Amino acid sequence: MNIKRELVLILDDYHLIQSTEVHGILEYLLEHAPLRLHLVLLTRSDPPFKLARLRVTGQLTEIRMQHLRFTAEEAAEFLKKAAGVQLTEDDAAALIERTEGWVAGLQMAAISLRGREDAAGFIAAFAGSHRFVFDYLLEQVLNRQPQDLREFLLQTSVLERMSAHLCDAVAPTGRPARILLDSIERANLFLVPLDDERTWYRYHHLFADLLRLMLEQTHPGLTDELHRRACNWYESQEMLPEALHHALAAKDMMLAARLVSANVLALVEHAELVPILLRMDAAPYEQRASLPWLEVAHAWSLAYTGQMARAEEALSLSEKHRDELPENEQTRMAGHTNAVRAYMAWALGKQQEAVEYAMEAALFLPAEEHAVRALNMTTLGNALVQYEADPRAMDLLEQAVVLARQARQSHVFMPAATALAFAYLMLGLFRKAHAVCLEAIEVADMYQRRTGQALPAAASAYAELAVILGEWGEIEKSIQVARKGLTLSELWGQTDTTMLCLLALAEGMSLAHDTESSLAVLQRARKIAKNVSPWFVFEVDKLEMRTLLDAGEVARAARLAPDMGARLPAALEARLLIKEIRFDEALALVQRSLPEAMNSPSLEAVRLSVIQALAYYLKNEDAQALSAIKRTLELAEPENQIMTFVRQGPVMEKLLRLALSKSICPAFVRRLLGAFDAQRKPISIPTVESLVEPLSERELEVLQHLNGPLSTPEIAEQLVVSANTVRTHIKSIYGKLGVHGRSAAVWRARELGLLG
User: Fold this and answer.
1) Does residue 99 sit within a domain?
2) Can you tell me the distance from the alpha carbon of 400 to that of 406, in angstroms, rounded to the nearest whole number?
């Protein structure tokens, strides 16, 4: 057929065609269509044609639901014209969130808004149960589905997100859920894919509202059972926070208590803490009070987020009903409550209490409870080195790491490994600390490769690694690593880990001579510290004093000393005395403190020895200075302790040049002098770690949307491109960032400063 001008054939409501003969005729027409013939089908579901081939050959243009969705601005304009209502920007955004830009939903909202004065109140309450929305979705969508598909839609409506395997467990219909989900998606039944692989989905908000309402009307009491099934499936997949969510939604406190009692620590340490707390708080007080294990988990969460008073209340509540448990469970719970209290005492700086509670917990915890025993032993080790090096901590923490490995849980291994690294640092064993940090980070990387998600508990490993790199003079790298840790800690929400990362970052900034940035980070740390623990405040004071001494602001540093009292480390106090030109007093303090510090290797011993050598040199007692610096260099060289010398400034450089002229530790001294030379050059503090291949402008736009709730089709709508184009950009982003999933991409982007 030779058509001389453009011809458009439009077929409306094509979804009503059921005849395979008609479908065959249309498909034949497509395969043999004249050049100027254009076929337009308006349909609610995909026709049974070979659409994939048409896409590949460029013969198909698709306008789908995501392309027809209104933006907030378009919705506001539509409602102004249709209902005479002028919406605020916030109201328009809220309405778009509820309707997801669905024009029929907006039309029903417009009808209802006519003559109303409280537009904001209406929008806040607008849901699938609204009579216009309810009638439309019921008549035009739900009632038109086959019985088995309608049942599937109703039963899966309890799920906030769903996969085929989850749906099979929650709503078995005799047909594979994969086939049903594909059918629902092809029929455009308000199903939103959440990933490019079509593994996870959710329902449109208004459609989900309708389904849940109809589920209650048609199957009273079934909702709780469906939540139980979802809980059991999530537990079998070790997705414990999701399992707890469904247990609580089922109002089955016994199920929640069983889940928590078996996985109490994993629940707290495996996920972001704020959502866990919200789920716990959502449970009625009377029910929580009668389920002591739920309160133990509640206490762990509260303690980790720095809410110590509330954590103690939760523990007290759990103990009121502990006697109702079997005897072996009472003993196990006593171990847990003492372990929580040990952690709280350590975080509050109550060293002796922490030791006592941890030792008490060890008596009650069963041998097979590897995870909590490892954490409790970690707390005990941390307490022993809280204020000064203690060799006993090393043995304890090495045992904790062994237990953590036996637990085979990445989030348990992290605190044990990084506590061991910290103990090694306190003992001046930088190379051992470095090896432990690298092992911990490798474990975290393996977890990320396996799950596609970052492991927030790895934040402390990055913090300790940053401290090591800073001492070794690798300052730029130290700052980058500290920022990685801080990004992870903010995802998790655990207070002491965030503090650790902030202190590591402030230390790196100080070594880079960026005093202003260092003090700004410390100010942020101080705000957290004041709300949690005097010990945290002490740690901030200590680092701020060191930063001010690095910057030569002696008077400001001196004002911090009285607040620290007897806890002020002797090396830091002696350094202040040197800066105040009180050399004799500094020497006297060092000579009182050094013999005890030298009983075993420690970072403090090296710091005291450095100050002693410096004081002798400033007093022009070169022989004693050279003797002291020789001993100090011999202590520091095996562990490559560089910045302890360099941060003492030009006078130390002169002393080291004198030592070099006497052939004292020449190789190490040359390395130290090289570090002094490097300090005279501007140190680059990159705000963003450079990528091998930078993201394009469009990829950066897509990345911003990945850091939000929108699915790939919804992102495509926002950017006015096809979903396939967005998928191509996402694949490129993953490759450039070196990640394998959306959450990992967002974490990596935050770490690089790409998300602001």
Assistant:
1) yes
2) 10
CA dist 237 and 228 (Å) reads: 14
The partner residues of 162 in beta bridges, in order of sequence, read 201
29-59, pLDDT tens digit by residue? Answer: 888 778 888 888 887 677 888 777 777 777 7
- Of the candidates 690, 656, 689, the residue with the CA atom closest to the CA atom of residue 674: 656
Q: Is the pTM of this model over 0.90?
A: no
Strands (E), 512-570: none
> What secondary structure letter does DSSP report for 202?
E
- Tens of pLDDT along 458-504? 899 999 999 999 999 999 999 999 988 888 887 767 788 889 999 99
CATH number of the structural domain spanning residue 737 = 1.10.10.10
Amino acid at the residue 199: T
Whether the CB-CB separation of 721 and 749 falls below 8 Å is answered with no
Fill in the DSSP letter of residue 290.
Answer: T
Residue 737 CA neighbour count, 13 Å, CB half: 29
Q: Give me the residue label for tokens 């060890």.
A: 362
Spatial distance between the Cα atoms of 651 and 130, rounded to a whole number of angstroms: 78
Instruction: Check: CB of residue 356 under 8 Å from CB of residue 570.
Output: no
107 and 162 co-located in one domain: no
Which residues are CB-contacts of 102 (< 8 A; sequence separation ≥ 6)? 65, 69, 204, 206
Domain span at 636: 569-686
What's the distance, Cα to Cα, between the start and end of the chain in Å?
59
Q: Say whether both 614 and 678 belong to one domain.
A: yes
d(Cα 410, Cα 448) in Å, to the nearest integer?
A: 10
Q: Domain count for the chain, please give it.
A: 5
Q: Are 358 and 380 in contact (CB under 8 A)?
A: yes
What's the CA gap between 90 and 710, in Å, rounded?
18
